[in-house]
Structure formats: structure tokens, C-alpha cells
Amino acid sequence: MTAVEEPTVATSAHPLEPLTADEIGTAAAVLREEQDLTDSARFVFVTLHEPPKSAVLGWTPDAAPLPREAHVVLYDRATRTTYEAVVSLTDRTVLSWTPVDGVQPPIMAEEFTSCEAIVQADPRWQEAMRRRGIQDFSLAMIDPWASSWTGPEDDPSARRIARPLTWVRSAPGEHGYARPVEGLVVVVDLDAGEVVDVADHGVVPLPARPGNYEEPWLFEPGNVPAVEAHRTDVAPISITQPDGPSFTVEGHAVSWLGWRLRIGFTPREGLVLHEVGYAGRPIVYRASLAEMYVPYGDPAPTHRFKNVFDQGEYGVGWLANPLTLGCDCVGHIHYFDGVVNDNDGAPVTIPNAVCMHEEDAGIAWKHTDFRTGAVQVRRRRRLVISTIVTVGNYEYGYFWYLYTDGTIEYEVKLTGVISTGAVAPGEVPAHGTLVAPGLYGPHHQHFFCVRLDMTVDGTANTVVEVDSAPSPPGPANPHGNAWQTHRTVLAGESVAQRDVDASRARYWKIESAERTSALGAPTAYALMPGANVPPMYSADAVFAPRAGFTRHQLWVTAADDTQRYAAGDYPNQHPGGQGLPAYIAGDRPLEGQDVVVWYTFGAHHVVRPEDWPVMPVSTVGFMLRPSGFFDGNPSLDLPPSAPHCHTT
């Protein structure tokens, strides 16, 4: 296993290069000077202000550089005001400075860490802990859960709050999520730095048994589940590429076996793909996670407000892990750093935030001529581009796969630790599953929405829904075995809100309005749904309007660079109505237009005992597959495998 350590060659003139550390520092300095900012001004996100799509598509390396600009979300604690700014890095001046009324920006890194000390210092919380027999408050873990929307008292114009929850370690460093403090809910004013309310709904005994996955506690007697030693029957696997990888990298531009794309990274979205194309033909202009939403299905006081937007209320980019060779990725690896900002506006580099490598992906195609015994087989390969983030107790891995047959796949890998609750001894939870005595995992769901700014052979695209259905009985179907596909053109935003339908094998094609294949049909890519699930919460739930994008799995909107997030720009403490339901209100035409496809997919988590104490990876995602984009199998030119692929 080897890693590419040498620095890449920067192509800073490209308009989509992520901001450098120097550019982030410059943007903050210019804003401080021109707006006369004080220490109460906190920098939430500093990211590239991307030029208009038309300008980027019209740009060539021979052309003059497009202006470099930074987009800044800033929060002033003194005035409790959110601002958006655009700073010209080319001219070192502020181009716009706009207050945004009635919103709260995401919880910041400094708030993430300060919340614990604020809660631990509160006498009411301390007294509640003593009622549970806890005297050493340094063992308490405080997770700063976003407040959700529970009623007018959460009005974002009135105050900036979080509702942190408490767990207790048995010893320093031990797995604290094994001992939740059930029934204790705290409200923290993040601006004032103080607890404003403590609600104690009654003492539930702390679960007695540890549930560790780390040494030295892993092998202790009484651990749940019991592990005596590491197994010794795991033979090593070595993945090597003696001639190096098949990809080339220049700055953030990647070329690989016909594919070309650019790697982007923002503090809110994390990994972004730009200008994805094959053999010089465009497919997707911008692909990004547009929101992720995690609603819990337990009405108990400690869990009822747990419905979080991990992207819009925190930001998955600044929570990205520094990835480690041989652990998170294996093979011949190229890493990309993620450059974000701290709340003073200084740059922070997350080393190895994005990992890229190649994988064998099984058989690409095969046929055996049974008459002659001749066998032809080719092995498929994929380029893996991934990032992994830690959001409190959970880990999420976001994986983009590009395949040698032209397929694009997006997969989310869910792992980490379940958010736990406690019940009295002998009690069976009604809205969760016991994973250890007195310890349970509440029912919950994870919804991910991916935004796909499509450019299938150009910006003029049409989205078509394709259903399969039995043909009607009659002379054309005398044996009852016939079935056909039916096309529905999604001509406007009012009709382009669609749901998966396995009974009709439903999928959606994004077709070029300008180019046809050798067979005369529009060239296209098909969005193929994977496993999915609708929301389990009632449409009348007080928080339901906050995640309107989960009402349907597919939405199509007219391209608009300002409409980037499925739940809106500021879901924190917001009652709802933002995002996709608002974007489609104008019912813009879509046929033959520049369109954005939004796909929402859900992971349904009825917790199992096997998910404790750390959860085995589960996956969910979807595919974009060529559907008439090529004139035949695009992987016919793959070379045969060498005979030494078979060993004894």
C-alpha cells in the first residue's frame, strides 16, 4: 500500500478550485477591515463563491481568469444577527454585506466544544446528576443536539439555543454512550453561554453494564457483548498496483480511464464533484449532498426533539475525518486536504479529508460459448472518491464510484454508535430495541438528499419518468405475458415531484434535448433508485414542515445557483417551509431546460442488538447509469486479465 505524498500541481486559474488557506485568511481580513468587525463577529463558513454556471462552462484555460470570490456566513453575537457577504479576493474588497433576518446559522465548532462546560457548571444540572448518584461531573459527556422546532419558544429571532443531552462514562476514556442520562433535557443559550432551562422528567437507573469496543476495556469481564481476545484466523490481504494508479491528478482535476472531473470541498457540504464527464462529453455539472435529516421515532422527552439536519445545522465538511492509509482506504491512494475555517476566520486544514483510489469491482462482462468452450471475461474497475465525517455519535461515509462501464454510483456508509436511551430494569421499550440490560436504541431514520446539476451532453435536458406495466389483455397480448414501458415527461416543477414505485420498476431518465444516439433516441443517463423508505413520522408532526424535501423521493427544478440546499439555507431552529417546497412554487418549465435533479433516499433503522456497541456498516444509495448515452457496451475495450489472476 502506498500513498501519493508529493504535492499536486495547482491550477489556480480554474474558477472551481477550492479556496486555499491564504484565500480564506484574506477573505476574513478584508471583511474585518471593511466592516469594522469586533470580536463578537464569528465566522461560520467561508467558502468559494462559485462563478455562474454559464461563466464556468464558457471558460477555457486560455481565457482570462474569472474573478476569485469568497462567500462568508457570519454571526454577530452582540447583535444576534446573521450576515452573508461576498468578498472579492481579486480586488480585496467587500462586494456585498447582507443581514439575514429571522434565521440561525449552523452550530459552530466553538459552540460544539463550549456546550459541555456550560452544562457541567449549572447547579440545576448538577443536582439532577446527584439524584442519579453521579458526583464526578468530569465523566459526563454532553452532546450539543440542535434544538429542532418545538414551538414558538424556539423562534430563531428571539434566541440561539441548543438542547444538549447527557451521558456518563464509567472511567476517563470509557465508552460513555453505554450510560445515557434518561429524562434530563437542558436548554442552552449559546450567545449568553448559560443554561436557561433544565427539565428532569424522572430518574431512570443508569445501565449497569459497560459496552466497550476499545482496548483496554474491550476484554474486561461483564462487557456487552463479551469479547475474550482478537481473532487470529484472519489472513492478510495485500492490494498493490506495482505500475502505479491509472488516474492522473492536476490540482483538483482528475482524469481516469475516460472520465474527467474536479474535486471540490466546502465546510457545509463536504465532498463535491464538479464537471463530471466521459470521453469529453458532459454528464453532471455539480453533484453534492444537499441535506441529511435524522428524525427519531420515540416520543419520550429525551428523544422527541431529536430530528436533526446534520448538514444544515452543523455542516459535514468541517466535521470530516483526517483519513489514514490502510484503515479508511487501502491501495494506491491520492489524498486531497479539506481547507475550512475556524470561528475567528482563520484557515484550518483537515489533512487527507478526501481519499481517492481504484478498486477491482468484480466481473464487467463475461460469456462462455458452450459449443466451442471459448471464454471471454473482463474485470470491472471503479474509481472511489470518499470522505468520512463524525457527527456526535454517528459516522457517515460518503462514497462516489465511477465505473468503467460509464456508471456513477453514490453510496452512504453508516456506522459509529447509536444514540442510546435507558429504561428501568425489566422494561421493554415501546419505540426502540434493547441492546443491553436497561439500554436501548430508539427507532429512527436517516434521509439523504443529493443535488445533481445535470448536463447530459449539454445544458438542455428533459427528465422522463419510465414505468413498466403489463400490457392489456387482447389480441396484442393473447398469452398475458406482455408488458411495456410508459414514459411521462416531467414538463414543469409542479409535476416533477415523484415517488419511487417498485411495483412499476420506476426510474427516471435525464435526456439530452439536443443530441441523439446512433439509434435515433436522445442520449441519456438513468437515475436508478436503490433501497428507499418514506418518512414514518406523521405529516401533522410539529417538526414535519422542516423537512419538506422528504415528502417525495425525486424533485426536479430549474437550475439556479442560489438554490443549493434541500431544506433551505438556514434550517436551524426554523419551523419549516424552506428548500424544495419553496423552490418549486414558481412552477418553472423544465422540458429541454437546464435542470437540477434532487434525489432523496432513506435508511430505516430499527436497531438490532448487533448494532451495539459500535454499529457494523450499513449502506444506502443510488446509481446513474448510461441509457442510450453510448452506442453499445462502453467497456468492450477493457483488456483481458492476466493469467496469474488464478492462484492456488
Automatic annotation (TrEMBL):
<comment type="similarity">
    <text>Belongs to the copper/topaquinone oxidase family.</text>
</comment>
<dbReference type="InterPro" id="IPR049947">
    <property type="entry name" value="Cu_Am_Ox_Cu-bd"/>
</dbReference>
<dbReference type="Pfam" id="PF02728">
    <property type="entry name" value="Cu_amine_oxidN3"/>
</dbReference>
<feature type="domain" description="AGAO-like N2">
    <location>
        <begin position="20"/>
        <end position="96"/>
    </location>
</feature>
<dbReference type="InterPro" id="IPR015798">
    <property type="entry name" value="Cu_amine_oxidase_C"/>
</dbReference>
<dbReference type="InterPro" id="IPR000269">
    <property type="entry name" value="Cu_amine_oxidase"/>
</dbReference>
<feature type="domain" description="Copper amine oxidase catalytic">
    <location>
        <begin position="238"/>
        <end position="636"/>
    </location>
</feature>
<dbReference type="InterPro" id="IPR054157">
    <property type="entry name" value="AGAO-like_N2"/>
</dbReference>
<keyword id="KW-0186">Copper</keyword>
<dbReference type="Pfam" id="PF01179">
    <property type="entry name" value="Cu_amine_oxid"/>
</dbReference>
<dbReference type="InterPro" id="IPR015802">
    <property type="entry name" value="Cu_amine_oxidase_N3"/>
</dbReference>
<keyword id="KW-0560">Oxidoreductase</keyword>
<dbReference type="InterPro" id="IPR049948">
    <property type="entry name" value="Cu_Am_ox_TPQ-bd"/>
</dbReference>
<feature type="domain" description="Copper amine oxidase N3-terminal">
    <location>
        <begin position="105"/>
        <end position="204"/>
    </location>
</feature>
<keyword id="KW-0479">Metal-binding</keyword>
<dbReference type="InterPro" id="IPR016182">
    <property type="entry name" value="Cu_amine_oxidase_N-reg"/>
</dbReference>
<dbReference type="InterPro" id="IPR036460">
    <property type="entry name" value="Cu_amine_oxidase_C_sf"/>
</dbReference>
<protein>
    <recommendedName>
        <fullName>Amine oxidase</fullName>
        <ecNumber>1.4.3.-</ecNumber>
    </recommendedName>
</protein>
<keyword id="KW-0801">TPQ</keyword>
<dbReference type="Pfam" id="PF21994">
    <property type="entry name" value="AGAO-like_N2"/>
</dbReference>
